[in-house]
Amino acid sequence: MGTPLDSREAQAVEVLDRLYEEYPDTDISLNFSTKLELLVAVVLSAQCTDERVNDICEDLFETYRSPEDYAAASEEELADDIYGITFHNNKAGYLKGIGEILVDEHDGEVPDTMSELTDLPGVGRKTANVVLQHAHDVTEGIVVDTHVQRISRRLGLTEEERPEAIEEDLMDVVPEDDWRMFTHLFISHGRATCTARSPDCADCVLADICPSERGDSSADLASGAEW
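^ Endonuclease III, sequence as received from the core. Prediction below:
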């Protein structure tokens, strides 16, 4: 079991320092060239791998180049074009609805506020944060995906379970200048080392300050279950 620093603020800063050194080139892994492409890719990425999304979107973005294209397509056409994406039927409806709202209410542009983005079908706070950060260079919060949710609990940065509550906790202890990169660092670490089922604590740069470290700790603080 590692020994966390005396405060959550100090713990967060130390974690960031180490992860910046471990993953100096980390960034968003979705492929996009426009704000609309980013919005579509992030909506499709819910409960689906970025690799699969990138593969599907390579052809999708050749066919659908504007909000008008999504609005004009039928849900059945869209579902066929994103087949292979998790919940493709539901997400086809989201894409059509997004296209219609962008055309009718935003002059075909992707909005740049949290409230307007979360009014779009299939767009929650997590998706909106990604679009704001990477399409508009606006950082209003911390994107809490499954990696951030899991690792922040393991490290003792939060005891909350819901993404919204976790985000509030993290915003209190993570320096604001690091909010955007915090997510990418945690995603990289979650994929490489701190995996959900079998984290490689023996090769983890955070092991000595992680209260969930498997060497002596009896439980995974992410789930509360025994190792």
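The first helix runs from residue 8 to 22.
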